[in-house]
Amino acid sequence: MIRITLVLAALISLAACATTQDDQASAPASIEAIQAARMADLLNSTAEATPERIRAAQAELAALEQVLMTAPEPAAPVAAVPPPLAPAPDLSGSRSVMSAVHLASYREYANLVAGWDELQEEAPSLLGDLDVRIAEANLGERGIFLRLKAGPLDSLQAAEALCAQLEAAGHWCAPADFDGRALQR
Questions:
Q1: Within 10 A of 9 (CB to CB), how many other CB atoms are there?
Q2: Alpha-carbon span 101 to 127, nearest angstrom
Q3: Which segment, 65-69, 78-82, 92-96, 129-133, is predicted with the most confidence on average?
Q4: What pLDDT score does 126 carry?
Q5: Labelling 78: which of 21, 43, 57, 170 has CA 20 to 30 A away?
Q6: Does domain 99-182 correspond to CATH entry 3.30.70.1070?
Q7: Where are the chain's structural domains?
Q8: Which value, to the nearest 10 degrees, does the dihedral of the CA atoms of residues 127, 132, 135, 136 take?
Q9: Contact present, 19 and 29 (Cβ < 8 Å)
């Protein structure tokens, strides 16, 4: 919980430091400051409502904390070659802090694409603005399935509400994490 508090404090500090007092009087808040404030609000409300989602995203939060707690390097001269980027932290075992709905599972990629197209035609008002993710699921002897997910949704409650609407329209649905890879056409 202390780590979460530090990350939240760092995000709020970043939002507060994004503009000076002179800038605040003459210009609106920067996009970065607004985004940092939104993220701080989202993390805070998620920590209060569903702390297990924050615990599940510890690797992502630790990486963010590391970046935010590291002092920025002084700006390099314009003609200087930028330093190499530090390697990205390994987040392969992390869970997403965003939710999604699991709509179907397929063995073949082409069937998944066709299934998504069909679902969008049948429920455009519910699915039209969502992004698609494909998550592989190894079910042992049953084989490997491709899970069709749509999101991101702000919370598990939002995923449950969307599933209720989809089920009322005759579709199968289950709340899930917003993970996997994007659909490639």
A1: 14
A2: 10
A3: 129-133
A4: 94
A5: 21
A6: yes
A7: 2-69, 99-182
A8: 100
A9: yes
